[in-house]
């Protein structure tokens, strides 16, 4: 039967064969363009910036502050030369690049925060490998002049505490213009960037430097939030910042026992939720967590590291949002956070990226359809069709 099908194809006019080949190429190209390009626009186009009250009260007078539109993502884990297979790197980097560039084009944020673990092998990469990873990152996460990119350090960027060195920290800070314990203020909103790997509390050189900067920032912020008539000699010579309560941005979450209380489709899998977290490894220690809460009294904490979503309240009033991984290598349904923020209020909304399982399903369905079309074209499916027709004809005759 196969030989007869091939003979039939050979007997077809050249024009019909070329027409069929053109249809196949068009079909395959359409599937590829949709799955590798258009699907990101289709999915991210459905995301909307959350609404937030922009009005703030100053005495009895109300003014309207512009809203800061921020995108927050975490744990991109760009694969390195040691553990990264070339096809895995190609696939994951293309997915993240298309998602990021599509989000920038459609949503036009003012600022983007990446909450650590930019790289997967920064903790042990050689200078040459590090330079290559940085080059690929800059290509994937390029951004227009209208958008600012702020990167926070993670344990895979400089190593866990026992692997962290001044050289690795300086290397990261030089590339991303970041210092361990930095405050940035945009549109009257204070963001504190924390090197959570340096919150070990053992007095190491990097830890001492980082904590000293955080204490100094805490003093500035606390002095800035005091009422004008309040007299405090310790604040007389301190540079005043906007009185807005700060937002903490860090890689490690603050201490919690586990993800048992976390919910949502992108939370940890059920079999992992009750696994106890290890202090200074999965989460910050209780002591370090309490220090950050005491120092800054934040109105919001944003963290990564766990690769899964979670929302918890600290001290019964301070929300912390754990942002899931942005890489399909870590989860089937990556996402990022869209935040509309003012000096006194904020509103957050999650934006999911295309499910990789759905993309795979589309490819499988398209492949099956392609095989059927080819078999039908070479008339290998003709006998079954004729058989069905004969059965129908006999049934009508009866």
UniProtKB/TrEMBL annotation:
Q: A Pfam family for this UniProt protein?
A: Metallophos
- Specify the protein's topology with respect to the membrane: Multi-pass membrane protein
Where does it reside? Answer: Endoplasmic reticulum-Golgi intermediate compartment membrane
Instruction: Give an example GO molecular function.
Output: phosphoric diester hydrolase activity
InterPro entries documented for this protein: Calcineurin-like_PHP (IPR004843), Metallo-depent_PP-like (IPR029052), MPP_MPPE1 (IPR039541), PGAP5/Cdc1/Ted1 (IPR033308)
Keyword Transport set for record: yes
Name the UniProt key words of this record, in alphabetical order. ER-Golgi transport, GPI-anchor biosynthesis, Hydrolase, Manganese, Membrane, Metal-binding, Transmembrane, Transmembrane helix, Transport
The processes (GO biological process) annotated in the record are: endoplasmic reticulum to Golgi vesicle-mediated transport; GPI anchor biosynthetic process
**What cofactor(s) does the depicted protein rely on?**
Mn(2+)
Q: Which CDD domains is this protein grouped with?
A: MPP_MPPE1
Q: Transmembrane residues, as ranges? A: 20-43, 360-387
Start and end residues of each Calcineurin-like phosphoesterase domain? 69-308
Q: State any GO CC term.
A: endomembrane system
What family, per the record? Belongs to the metallophosphoesterase superfamily. MPPE1 family.
Instruction: Tell me the function of this protein.
Output: Metallophosphoesterase that catalyzes the removal of a side-chain ethanolamine-phosphate (EtNP) from the second mannose of the GPI-anchor protein intermediate. Participates in the glycan remodeling steps of GPI-anchor maturation to allow an efficient transport of GPI-anchor proteins from the endoplasmic reticulum to the Golgi.
Q: This protein is called what? A: Metallophosphoesterase 1
Organism equals Sapayoa aenigma
Q: What is the lineage of its organism?
A: Eukaryota, Metazoa, Chordata, Craniata, Vertebrata
């Amino acid at each position: 039967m196969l030989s007869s099908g091939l003979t039939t194809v050979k007997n077809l006019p050249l024009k019909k064969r070329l027409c069929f080949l053109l249809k196949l190429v068009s079909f395959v190209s359409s599937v590829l363009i949709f799955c590798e390009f258009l699907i990101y626009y289709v999915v991210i186009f459905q995301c909307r910036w959350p609404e937030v009250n922009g009005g703030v009260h100053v005495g009895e007078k109300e003014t309207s502050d512009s809203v800061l539109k921020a995108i927050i993502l975490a744990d991109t884990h760009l694969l390195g030369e040691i553990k990264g297979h070339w096809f895995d790197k190609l696939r994951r980097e293309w997915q993240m690049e298309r998602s990021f560039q599509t989000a920038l084009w459609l949503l036009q944020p003012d600022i983007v925060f990446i909450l650590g673990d930019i790289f997967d092998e920064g903790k042990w990469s050689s200078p040459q490998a590090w330079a290559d990873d940085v080059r690929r990152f800059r290509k994937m996460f390029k951004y227009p002049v209208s958008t600012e990119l702020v990167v926070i350090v993670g344990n895979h960027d400089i190593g866990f505490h026992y692997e962290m060195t001044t050289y690795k920290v300086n290397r990261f800070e030089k590339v991303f213009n970041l210092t361990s314990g930095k405050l940035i203020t945009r549109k009257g909103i204070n963001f504190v960037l924390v090197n959570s790997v340096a919150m070990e509390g053992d007095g190491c050189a990097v830890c001492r430097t980082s904590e000293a900067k955080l204490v100094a920032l805490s003093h500035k912020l606390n002095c800035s939030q005091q009422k004008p008539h309040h007299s405090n000699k310790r604040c007389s010579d301190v540079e005043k910042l906007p009185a807005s309560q700060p937002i903490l941005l860090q890689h490690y979450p603050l201490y919690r026992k586990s993800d048992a209380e976390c919910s949502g489709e992108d939370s940890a899998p059920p079999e992992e939720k009750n696994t106890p977290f290890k202090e200074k490894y999965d989460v910050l220690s209780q002591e370090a967590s309490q220090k950050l809460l005491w120092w800054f009294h934040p109105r919001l904490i944003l963290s990564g590291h766990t690769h899964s979503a979670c929302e918890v309240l600290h001290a019964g009033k301070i929300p912390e949002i754990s942002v899931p991984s942005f890489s399909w290598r870590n989860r089937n349904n990556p996402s990022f956070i869209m935040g509309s923020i003012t000096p006194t209020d904020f509103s957050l909304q999650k934006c999911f990226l295309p499910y990789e399982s759905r993309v795979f399903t589309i490819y499988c369905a398209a492949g099956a359809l392609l095989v059927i079309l080819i078999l039908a074209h070479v008339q290998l499916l003709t006998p079954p069709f004729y058989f069905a027709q004969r059965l129908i004809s006999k049934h009508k005759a009866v």
